[in-house]
Amino acid sequence: MSWRENKLIRIKTREGKQGRIKFLAVFFIICLVVIIIRLFDLQVLKGGFYAALAIGQHELYQKLFPERGSIYIVENNNGQQILFPLVTNKDLHMLYAVPADVEKPRETAEKLFELFGWPEDIDMKKVEEELFADISVNLDPIMAAEIKQTRLEKWQAEQQEQEITRLESILAKANDPYEPIRHKLTDEQMETIKSWNMKGLAFKDEIWRFYPERGMGGHIFGFWGFDGDSRVGKYGLEGYFDQELTGEFGEIYSERDAWGNIIAIGNNSLKEKVDGSDLVLTIDRAIQYQSCQALQEYVDYFKAESGSVIVTNPKTGEILALCGAPDYNPDEYNKVKDVSVYNNPAIFDAYEPGSIFKSITMAMALDTGKIQPDTAYVDTGSVYIKPYIIKNYNEKVYGRQTMTEVLEKSINTGSIFAMRQITPKIFAQYAKDFGFGRLTGLELAQEVAGDISNLDKNNEIYAATASFGQGLNVTPIQMIMAVGALANGGQLMKPYIVSQIINSDGVIETFKPQELKQVISAKAAAMISGMLVSVVENSYTKSAKIDGYRLAGKTGTAQIADKNQKGYLGDSVVSTSFVGYGPFADPRFAIIVNINKPQWGKTGEAVAAPVFKKIAKFILQYYNVPYDSK
Question: pTM for the whole thing?
Answer without folding.
Answer: 0.81
